[in-house]
Amino acid sequence: MPSPFPGMDPYLEHPALWPGLHSRLIVGLADHLGPILRPRYYVEVEERVYLLTSEGGAFPFPARSDVAVAAPSGLPSSPGSIPIPAGGARVVTLPMPEEVRERYLVVREAGTHQVVTWLEILSPANKAPGEGQRVYLQKREEILRSRVHLVEIDLLRAGEPMPVMGDGRDGHYRILISRWEQRPRALLYVFTVRDSIPTFRLPLLPGDEEPEVDLGRLLQTIYERAAYDLRVRYEEEPVPPLEPPFAEWAAALLRERGLRTR
Hints:
Layout (H helix, E strand, L loop, with lengths): L17 H20 L3 E13 L14 E3 L26 E13 L5 E7 L2 H4 L3 H14 L4 E6 L18 E6 L8 E5 L8 E2 L10 E2 L1 H11 L20 H11 L6
Parallel strand pairs: 4-5
Antiparallel strand pairs: 1-3, 2-3, 3-4, 5-6, 6-7, 8-9
C-alpha cells in the first residue's frame, strides 16, 4: 500500500522510523543512479565518523544520528547500578562520547576517481546544535569552496534549516542544488507536506547528460517495500507535530483514506 501523502510522509520523521528510512534512501539512490551514470561515473556510499556526547544524558534532538551509534568498546550498553557509600555521595551521570556514523553519497568520475557531486540527506544531528551539526557544517563549507557540486536534501521539519542567503524558511522541506561553477548562486526547492517532492537534475561535468532524480517515486517505492503502512500509526499525531492548518489538512486526508476516524 502506498503512502497516503502526495510527497514526504510526515509520519516517517518519527525517531523510531527515520534512521531506517534514511539508510534505505541512501542505498536506494545509489542503486538507482549507479546503472544510469555508468560507464562515465560511479556512485559510492561513504560515511563520516565522529564522537557525540549526550550532555545531561539527553540528546538535543528526539532522534540520534542515522545509521549507527556504537558504545565505546568494553563499556556496557546500559548503565549499571552503583552502591551509594556512606557520607552523602550523589550518583550522577557523565556525558559519555558515542561513535556516530553518517552515510552520504558521492559521484566519482571513472578513471580519475575524482569526486564530482556530493549528495547529503540531512540527519537530525546535522540540524541540532552540537558536534553533529559542527562536523557537517565544516564539511559543507569545504565542499562549497571546492569544485564539487553539492546536493543537500532536507526531509526533516524539526531543527534549523541549513544556512542560505535568501528566502528558504517558508516550507517544511528543502532540496538545495549547488553547482560549483554557479556559486554563490544555487537552486533551492522549498515545499510543504501538501506538495509533491520536486524532481531535480543531478549536476555532473559540463557536457554530460544529467539524469533526473525523482525522489518522490523512490520514497513511495521504499514505503511499499519496507511495509511502512503496517508500522505507521496514522491514528496518532505525527512526531514532530504539524502546525495548523497543515494538521487539519493531514487529518482530513487520513480520514478520507480510511486511516483515521477523528
